């Protein structure tokens, strides 16, 4: 168990998730004294310490109570959980929230020159992966008898190097597969970054701090999805204009100095305005249409 009375959060030190994690903590109002080489960063305005580690270590640190919270890809979380379950080691965590970054999928791929293949082709083949537990479970579910070759990096070069017949690796844009002459097959897991909590956490002060941060997290996410919309609308077309604005329950209407026919309409929309909607608004006589980002929200 963490013996510090400061909330300990594990994040990835370097790599795909580290910048998003640091940005998220900043948006939550956590000020950090980050020094590149340091393992621990202390918050200067909250009783929080941030541990910067390899992403593979994050689930275990949270499961074992070394850290109270962690931000990690679901792919790594599921892999570590499966490995621990097989070994009979505690593997539960509370998943507090899925986050809106780190989206990728774990997919099968094979050399392009083989052309289209179905699942049965994998029978008896060697598949290189960093995720042997997830892959083995999938192969079992599908009734495919194939062997896994564990590689911690450069999985995409394994077929060319003669280490395997196919791979099972993370894909986002597909550029890595393409650059290595591989075709993407079945997706076996979709993943986002997520926020996890040690399931035995009982310290009242730490729980209170988490309860303070969670509404902020929801507020950050809601703000990202919402827009503040302002426009000038002809009074006689207000109903039609409101009808095409997404989520315009109770817009604010303001008089325009020296203009009896128009009003200013302000509203928070739960989604952005597409160009097509803006063109429709314009056709109804609206003008000065502004769509602005919202930084924070609290309802
Ligand atoms: N191409 C991608 N696009 C978006 N997210 C990705 C992508 N590749 C990986 N991720 C997510 O980011 C996480 C970290 O990826 P990264 O490549 O930095 O890991 P790593 O090389 O294992 O780093 P570490 O040194 O921390 O072990 C992955 O586990 C996954 O959840
Ligand atoms: O489909 P793409 O957009 O090309 O992304 C997929 C690649 O991204 C990840 O690696 P990363 O670039 O993070 O480097 P790493 O292999 O050193 O971890 C992943 O392991 C793939 O190799
Ligand atoms: Mg890693």
From TrEMBL:
Alphabetical list of Pfam families matching this protein: HisG, HisG_C
Compartment(s) of residence: Cytoplasm
The keyword RNA-binding is assigned to this record: no
Coarse class of the protein's main subcellular location: cytoplasm
Domain ATP phosphoribosyltransferase catalytic: from-to ranges: 54-218
Domain of life: Bacteria
Keywords for the protein's UniProt record, in alphabetical order: Amino-acid biosynthesis, ATP-binding, Cytoplasm, Glycosyltransferase, Histidine biosynthesis, Magnesium, Metal-binding, Nucleotide-binding, Transferase
Pathway(s) it belongs to: Amino-acid biosynthesis; L-histidine biosynthesis; L-histidine from 5-phospho-alpha-D-ribose 1-diphosphate: step 1/9
Catalytic activity: 1-(5-phospho-beta-D-ribosyl)-ATP + diphosphate = 5-phospho-alpha-D-ribose 1-diphosphate + ATP
Enzyme Commission number(s) of this protein: 2.4.2.17
GO molecular function ontology, one term from the record: ATP phosphoribosyltransferase activity
Statement: the UniProt record of this protein carries the keyword Glycosyltransferase: yes
Function, in words: Catalyzes the condensation of ATP and 5-phosphoribose 1-diphosphate to form N'-(5'-phosphoribosyl)-ATP (PR-ATP). Has a crucial role in the pathway because the rate of histidine biosynthesis seems to be controlled primarily by regulation of HisG enzymatic activity.
Family recorded in the similarity comment: Belongs to the ATP phosphoribosyltransferase family. Long subfamily.
Protein's name in the database: ATP phosphoribosyltransferase
Protein source organism: Pseudoalteromonas distincta
